[in-house]
Amino acid sequence: SQQGEEDPQALSIQEGENATMNCSYKTSINNLQWYRQNSGRGLVHLILIRSNEREKHSGRLRVTLDTSKKSSSLLITASRAADTASYFCATGGSGAGSYQLTFGKGTKLSVIP
Amino acid sequence: SQTIHQWPATLVQPVGSPLSLECTVEGTSNPNLYWYRQAAGRGLQLLFYSVGIGQISSEVPQNLSASRPQDRQFILSSKKLLLSDSGFYLCAWSARGPDTQYFGPGTRLTVL
Prior knowledge:
The complex is a heterodimer of chains A (113) and B (112). By secondary structure, chain A is mainly β. Chain A contains no helices and 11 strands. In chain A, strands 2, 4, 5, 9, 10 and 11 form a 6-stranded mixed sheet that branches. Chain A has a 5-stranded antiparallel sheet with strand order 1-3-8-7-6, with no helix packed on it. Chain B starts with a strand and ends with a strand. The interface between A and B is medium-sized, with 26 and 28 residues.
């Protein structure tokens, strides 16, 4: 079953604007990750935030995690046309023997030049 | 550095035909390996994962199977394809789960 649910499903912004995507999940996690997928390609890992972290930055990306609300957000600042892609959150379980990630359905981001 | 390969890149197969998709990883040892399927415009569905040679865990019952004959080789198979098997198949590896996964380029399978 899919645990992560991204919101919105689709987002269209002008180049230079900030893009914010949200992810909600249901069970305890070890970590939460964000991935990017260009059309017809494999997924690329963007950032991982562990359950004891609240915020993490990587370049133009900022991720927050609120474990009390079971939610995370991904902020892309100063967006570029090349940021156009689908963005997925994935949760890593906290139980023993948890080897897999559970992916959401993704947010499709369109950045208009 | 580590790399992951998948082939073929695209495949068109008739209903009822067999399937074999291959995934290999280079530059790491004893990786966790994963097969996902992605339907058009949808998220990823985990099909199989493996934590070692010959160790396969199935997440979704279906007419697909997976094998890991070597440490860095993961194969997805079917004896008879169904129309519903069409999709984008992705292989991934991780150093240890549930940590960062690294994805291959994917195989686009169309069953007619």
